[in-house]
Fold these 2 entries.
Entry 1:
Amino acid sequence: MTFSRILGTGGFLPEKVLTNSDLEQMVDTTDAWIRERTGIRQRHIARDGETCVDLAEAAARRALDAAGLTANDIDLIIVATTTPEQTFPSSACLLQHRLDIHGCPAFDIQAVCTGFIYALSVADKFIRTGSAQRVLVVGAETLSRIIDWTDRVTCVLFGDGAGAVVLGAADEPGIISSHLHADGAYRSLLQVPAGIGNGYTGSPYMEMKGNEVFRVAVTTLGRIVDETLEANGMERSDIDWLVPHQANMRIIQATARKLDLDMEQVVVTVEDHGNTSAASIPLAFDRAVRDGRIQRGQTVLMEAFGGGFTWGSVLLRY
Ligand code: COA
């Protein structure tokens, strides 16, 4: 049997940092409110003209370096993004061009904050079925472009960035299992209503019913954790690391409690990055791999929840 395992990781954040005190000058908010309700201190924001593909390219090159591979070794590119550089071609095709590789399949996945989990799961299936050997999986976002910077409810939460992994075929897992879900009935709680030809003429920015999203996120993430452990006959104590989607510190803490995990076993970047949607898990994973916390052979649970709603998890042995 063929499995997939992570060969290398990379991350990239735009240079510009927006702190909570910067936001105090822009909307009616305070550093104390933002920290207490979300845990966020600062977020990175793409400069004018810096696109999701710019961020994706930088993260991808770092992941390729870490894997000891070159772009020509890649035979599939998947980019998870909700903020693509263009409507089409896909950001994956634009990234392929930047990397100067030709012919391999390349496509985007749109599952908002669960996008990286979806992309990793799809890449794993390509490798398990022998359709690909080495896959570049990227989560890249410029959320700042779909935020209303006069809306204090949303503008304090999000940031820009990209994270990437190179996934390769292996004799042993690697990725142990992945679990994907969606329910479009929740669309109105978290959305950008503008689209192509849908007749909508209102604000082009994100709308969110924050406390309803919060409530559903906490219970749904609790369920996905149970589902993942049960599917693999594992106990909570079998998990070495939780790498959650970084939406809100209180949501992360609730999932850690559900798993009986000490916060020392949870990779948290939300203070420094805010919610970078599809980029948040690969950015957090990359940070913990590079600083030596996550070691080869350890068991890692990744989980995410986002617009759609979409939610899912990936359990892996690093
Ligand atoms: N600064 C100061 N006050 C703010 C504020 C801000 N940035 N944003 C909202 N408020 C105010 C509200 O207007 C409200 O005031 P009111 O009581 O006078 O009406 C008050 O704070 C409480 O609002 P509420 O929405 O109940 O706060 P909350 O405790 O639910 O926290 C969120 C708000 C957005 C931080 C929280 O709901 C959350 O994190 N939700 C999940 C969002 C998320 O993660 N989305 C992405 C999922 S992938």
Entry 2:
Amino acid sequence: MNSIIYQNLGMAETHKNYIDGLWQDAATGATFKDINPARNADVIGNFPESGVEDVDDAVRAARHAFKKWSRRPAPERGDILRRIGDLLTERKSELAFQMTREMGKPFFETKGDVQEAIDTAYYAGTETRRLFGRTVPSEMPNKFNMSLRRPIGVCGVITAWNFPVAVPTWKMFPALACGNTIVFKPSEMAPHSGALLVQIMADAGVPPGVLNLVQGSANAGRALVEHPDVNLVSFTGSTVTGSKIGETCGRMHKRLSLEMGGKNPMIVLADADLDLVIDGLVWGAFGTTGQRCTATSRLIVHEDVHDELVENLRQRAVALKLGYGNDDDTEMGPVINQAAMDKIQSYMDIAKDEGAEILTGGKPASGEGLDDGFFFEPTILTGVTPEMRVAKEEIFGPVLSVLSISSYEEAVQVANNIEFGLSSSLYTSDVTTAFKAMHDIEAGITYINGPTIGAEAHMPFGGVKGTGNGHREGGWEVFDFYSETKTVYVDYSGQLQKAQIDNVDD
Ligand code: UN1
């Protein structure tokens, strides 16, 4: 990593949209500034503040490209996906460095983010040889029934900044594998990572128009969702925005996948291996500075082990090395921006008002290397009860709420007492309890003896309740989302056969 030298020359580069194979400015020429959350003086660049006109150009390009791209043999599309995987592998360190610079998580984490994209590329590439339909017996003689997959059309991809490469690829690679074309709007907090990913995809041979990049904020996102020629929307972000997108897509009959908030519980029972728990907790709660939708944000711990666990955790939390993620020894980076700092700080007041205790943290971190960035101390809230806001609302920062329980049944009840249902975890040495929990916990993902983070690219990913709308990313299920089922009947009997009539005697 140290071999990569970055110098801010004080002249912020101006970046462009990528439409129909050409890098171009927003129609209005407006831009927004992107800064390093750990070193605020480091300006990463200015990016186009796109509007309706830019989105319209991008959608037109994607619609035009769809004709050819959708007709290419799927394994040929797979070849390009595998080449993307190769290029991501080649440029892994370079890309991870820029991602860390832009969104803050440590370099070892952004390398993991890129690796998730690499895994997704090879997985999707291979799936292009396995986009199965079915053949099914007909109820009539000399008739052949089958289902096959068709691409859907133009996909609007809107993503968050915390996994600025992996999450867009969860959406774009299966979309491309199935023969769709894309207009991609990355988060305005991670436009550079988005642009670098698009460049890699273009370099790997994704043809002009098949993938288009439109930078910008809510306006650009709204224009994309509302565009009548966008057939499908895939969104990762806040529940408030997701609900609005859901209303529009419902009204306009668009296919929609939503990945939204989480308030993910880790249940620790009295028979758990506490050393294992501690490692999992530090990683689950403070990895990515708690800014994962899968982050462990509630510790639901048996009263018999509560005090020991919490004290051990406190010691580990205060020892975490905060800093710029591209410095070698950094364990936890900054939060993304001032608004995130303010939001987290406001939850400290809410916690105190509601009677919780701030065991450690609870304020911005200061000291050498921390004063020109958005650093917040790893925070543990104890004495939290299930009805408190800090037990129910997503804070999206390095804040863990600790709730004490006295039985498995109570733990499950507390774990389920939220509007979200993304990830969850249970630490126990009892296999019977573990298998019960797999069914009892209301979440799309349950880890046994592991923290709530760490999803693998080839496994379905998504949540229940307020977290999602029933779809899954990743794994084999995502290919169903990005393709339409066509049912085909071939009658070779040479005569008219009437289903449900000719073949049933009353
Ligand atoms: C997210 O936070 O939006 O399971 C995605 C994990 C990662 C993906 C997180 N592989 O934590």
